[in-house]
Design a protein that fits this description.
The structure holds 2 protein chains of 2 kinds.
Chain A lengths: L4 H9 L10 E5 L2 E5 L3 H9 L12 E4 L9 H17 L2 E2 L8 H7 L8 E4 L13 E4 L2 H10 L1 E5 L3 E7 L8 H12 L8 E5 L1 H5 L2 H9 L8 E3 L4 H10 L17 E6 L6 E3 L7 E3 L10 E4 L1 H4 L2 H11 L9 E4 L4 H9 L2 H8 L2 E2 L20 E4 L15 E5 L1 H10 L10
Parallel strand pairs in A: 2-3, 2-5, 3-4, 5-6, 8-9, 8-11, 9-10, 14-15, 14-17, 15-16, 17-18
Antiparallel strand pairs in A: 1-7, 12-13, 12-18
Helix pairs in contact in A: 2-5, 6-8, 11-13, 11-14
Chain B lengths: L2 E7 L6 H4 L10 H5 L10 H4 L5 E4 L11 H8 L4 E4 L4 H10 L3 E3 L1 H5 L6 E5 L4 E4 L5 E3 L5 H9 L2 H18 L1
Parallel strand pairs in B: 1-2, 2-3, 3-4
Antiparallel strand pairs in B: 1-5, 5-6, 6-7
The chains are: A alpha/beta, B alpha/beta.
């Protein structure tokens, strides 16, 4: 009996020839990551363990991104705890102005490679599955233990294979594919499982779109999402790293808990209405929802290709007078490139603001918090009650194309409505 | 020793954003977090909850972010245990790691209401509703997870291991 790619990575990290879904294994970790919200708790726990140094400073990463540049004194104190610990440990640390959102920054620096086991104190750590890594989010105590020992325990997840066939219509992106998938299986449809994304549509899908899909695997309850390593993956890695890596592929006779096939040829740009990412509808079926704000950015959709799509739609148009449109680059690199390509000019001319790189509004931190009764179309990942501000505010999830079109029309809109 | 407590019942997909909204994640102080526990699903909850109470909820409890602040806020508010039809995996790990008992008992959840009194025997995986007198099976933990619970959380379990390794090295 063969193994899936997730099983192969965990078997290798456990020093075993094979592992079975459901069993608990201890694995060596290749990268451990925390951010300004989760690091202070991890550090406090780490200090209780009676060890002085992290297991390997080259494998421990700290990224200030959630509430930075510091939104208030308390947030500043949290960031300071992390910065001081990172520097004292000589660990990998990305300072503001040379970094950005963790899940955008780490792949840009070639830190997320095929075959690795990556854990992070952030639920969207599953993003790195786009690079054929086994990557999953954990809490601060798990991360503290891993920072000390270089190992963690994992229950080997069953794998659900998703096969995407057909032809992707215009303006239908990785975001629409993952929203559609979550809409079909529900927010606990892949609970504890690994989602393996395959099929001819995936083979053609650009890396940025794959990253968006892996990023939201957690929104289906999954432990992780994973893609095979192909020419597109290798092309990305060749630009950013000279480190060797060992890709894994699923065996033809691998066992799957389920195989689910979607023909995506007739898909339209989608939105997820409040208050669950599974509450998915075609954008052109909900035209009667006026909006107050649009956010384009985040670890889900803050990459260059996302800003390009938004700019393509906003070029020569104006953000609706009643709407605040906030564009947030996922990293300093994205900001630099967007500036060079003239995207920033397009946003500013359209009446949008172009922010520093931050997670900020996605989790109601700052830089776009919603008032009572306000509604926002956002390219982020969660539309839970109160996620972006007041508990009676609403978040509607969408792709950058839908978000930009909505910004122009002042209501939920499909990009096809603009001529 | 079985634990007993008064029930607060919630629905499906209770996410970590409503358990502890991100606007409060500028601290790791458990008492400060406890003041806002469940605030965006029930703003009165922090004022109503009493030490020893039990949260009962539907499917996928704790979905969303990895913030350990969520189980910490629940525990610091005095909640003794969470019983749910199912748990989101990061929340489940976090709860076990910090010593907040989490019990999977779907049938018990469906037949329990706010105000009921529950008796939970985590060791034997039994939940009893004292109002109805009915007894339910809860999912049993693996030996590995029980080990973490017996040690009083992941940190203690790992510390024991590190100390054992150090002692072995010193003895060589």
């Amino acid at each position: 009996m063969g193994m899936t790619m997730a099983e192969k990575i965990l078997a290798r990290a456990a020093g075993r020839s094979r592992v079975e879904p459901g069993e608990i294994v201890e694995v060596a970790v290749d990268l451990v990551m925390t951010n300004d919200i989760t690091a202070p708790l991890s550090i406090a726990e780490f200090k209780k363990l009676g060890v002085e140094r992290v297991f390997d400073p080259k494998k421990v990463v700290f990224v200030p991104d959630h509430f930075v540049p510091a939104k208030d004194i308390k947030a500043a104190e949290q960031s300071k705890i992390m910065r001081e610990f990172a520097l004292e440990q000589n660990a990998i640390y990305f300072e503001i102005g040379r970094a950005g959102i963790e899940h955008v920054v780490l792949p840009e620096h070639g830190l997320t490679r095929p075959g690795m086991v990556i854990i992070g104190a952030d639920s969207h750590t599953c993003t790195y599955g786009a690079f054929n890594a086994f990557a999953t989010g954990m809490g601060s105590t798990d991360i503290a233990a891993a920072m000390a020992t270089g190992t963690t325990w994992m229950r080997v997840p069953p794998t659900i294979k998703f096969v995407y066939t057909g032809t992707l219509p215009p303006f239908v992106t990785g975001k629409d594919l993952i929203l559609y998938t979550i809409g079909q299986i529900g927010v606990d449809g892949a609970l504890y499982a690994c989602m393996e994304f395959t099929g001819p549509v995936i083979d053609e899908l650009p890396m940025d779109d794959r990253i968006t899909m892996a990023n939201m695997a957690i929104e289906a309850g999954a432990k992780t999402g994973i893609f095979a390593c192909d020419d597109k993956t290798r092309e990305w890695l060749a630009k950013v790293t000279t480190e060797p890596y060992e890709p894994v592929d699923s065996d033809p006779d691998a066992r799957y808990a389920q195989v689910i096939e979607f023909d995506v040829s007739n898909l339209r740009p989608l939105v997820a209405l409040p208050h669950l990412p599974s509450n998915v509808r075609p954008a052109d079926e909900v035209r009667d929802l006026p909006i107050d704000q649009v956010v384009i950015g985040s670890c889900t959709n803050g990459r260059l290709s996302d800003l390009r799509i938004a700019a393509e739609i906003l070029k020569g148009r104006q953000v609706h007078p009643r709407v605040r449109c906030i564009v947030i680059p996922g990293s300093q690199e994205v900001a630099k490139q967007a500036t060079k390509e003239g995207l920033v000019d397009i946003f500013l001319e359209a009446g949008a603001v172009f922010s520093v790189s931050t997670c900020g509004p996605c989790l109601g931190g700052y830089m776009g918090v919603l008032a009572k009764g306000e509604r926002c179309v956002s390219t982020t990942n969660r539309n839970f009650r109160g996620r972006m501000g007041h508990r009676e505010s609403e978040v509607i999830l969408a792709s950058p194309a839908v978000a930009a079109a909505s910004a122009v029309l002042g209501r939920v809109a499909s990009p096809f409505e603009l001529n | 020793m079985p634990m007993r407590g008064r029930v607060w019942k919630f629905g499906d997909n209770i996410d970590t954003d409503v358990i502890i909204p991100a606007r409060y994640l500028v601290t790791i102080d458990p008492q400060e977090l406890a003041q806002h526990v469940m605030e965006d699903i029930d703003p009165e909850f922090a004022a109503k909850v009493r030490p020893g109470d039990i949260i009962v909820a539907g499917r996928n409890f704790g979905c969303g972010s990895s913030r350990e602040h969520a189980p910490i806020a629940i525990k610091a508010a005095g909640v003794q245990a969470v019983v749910a039809e199912s748990f989101a995996r990061i929340f489940f790990r976090n709860a076990i790691n910090i010593g907040l008992p989490v019990v999977e008992a779907p049938e018990a959840v469906r037949e329990t209401e706010t105000g009921d009194e529950l008796e939970i025997d985590t060791e034997n995986g039994i939940v009893r509703n004292l109002r109805t007198g009915k007894t339910y099976k809860a999912t049993q933990y693996d030996e590995f997870i029980q080990h973490i619970i017996r040690a009083g959380g992941l940190l203690n379990a790992v510390r024991e291991r590190i100390q054992a390794r150090k002692a072995a090295e010193a003895g060589q």
